[in-house]
Amino acid sequence: MAVQTTPTTTLSELRSARRGGRWIEHWDPEDSAFWRDSGRRVARRNLSLSVFAELLGFSVWALWSIVVPQLPAAGFDLTADQMFWLISVPSLVGAALRIPYTFAVPVFGGRNWTVVSALLLLIPTTALALVVRDPSTPFGALLAVAALAGFGGGNFASSMANISFFFPEREKGAALGWNAAGGNLGTALVQLVVPLVIVSGAGVALDRAGLMFVPLALLAAVLAWRFMDNLATAKADPRTVAVAARERHTWILSAIYIGTFGSFIGYSGAFPTLLAGQFPEAGLKVAFLGALVGSLARPLGGILADRLGGAVVTVVAFAVMAAGALGAVAALRAHDFGLFLGAFLVLFVATGVGNGSVYRMIPAVFRVVGASGKVAAGCIGIAGAVGALGGFLVPRALAVSTTATGSIIPALVTFVGVYVVLAGLTWAVYGRRGARMGSARV
Fold this sequence. Notes:
Low-confidence stretches: 1-8
Strand content: under 5%
Radius of gyration: 22 Å
Helix content: over 70%
Strand order of the largest sheet: 1-4
Distance between the termini: 41 Å
Number of helices: 20
Largest sheet: 2 strands, parallel
């Protein structure tokens, strides 16, 4: 029986003895008395633990981005194309897992699935520790183990879905922003810490890159089991994804999100290898900066979109991304490391801002067309999965460019053209003044 919402509702009353101590049968964050007396505290606790688990997921997803440029020092003999395959395949698998991970929360419970998804991270991390010990390991085996890192990419979708159920509409944007930013920071964290951990005398102990996450994944699982909650009221209807898939705005927004988030995750994965290949004298000490500034810029994109409109901010973000890519081209031609780093940091900031603004656009667009919030949520699930494909497409484009011409410049010039097209698409559909979407400042 549902517990009546009153100012004196206690946490023990919220939980169901029938299902076990961590199931909450009644949850109504829109009730101000409920939210003040017990809801906010419970939601924030679940958010903090979710951020930790998601940060680990993103770290494992990005693990091969910092392992790959270290493979030659460990005795592996790989071509540039093979190295970019190892960087890109985790994103492909992670993108495929995002939609099923989203529906896992209502089926199994947010707390339960956080435990399971944290424990699943033990598979790619221990497998990595095993295969990198032997330089004679076949490339196919390396590729299969790299694909397992995609488990970490699925964590984002389930974590965002879970937290969305805990918070009221007026605070949902901020909560999801913190959750997303915390997860994105995992990419920067792994690129900062792993090079320090794997140092072993004059060489590298690459197996430590995987082993270091084993106790952390176990800790995340234990904390989730002990302190997180399942919401019996968390429901998801797979039909909303089908409805969203028939809406043309879903695919327009997904294409735009490939340009922003796809660029962020793609460049994040490739940046350490680009630095090692183009400016080996600079080392990998600054490789984490790109993912760091891109992650920190994501909340800024949402804030600016709230004030100026998401379409306007997204168009500007694409313009800055194009300028950053052109700056990187100029830096490569002059072999100027400072300019190369600066151009890419500008590019990363713009991707982060664009990520935040597009996420703000999605519910606004569906409000204008009169669709329900559930359909907008379905669009977010599809766009998140499609956008993650950029983590595969960007490194593969860089690999093809390198193999065909010996340079990444053709790929960067192509990216500039893509950003110009996406900026035009965003403005034409969502930004033009006088048009339906432009007037609504989506």
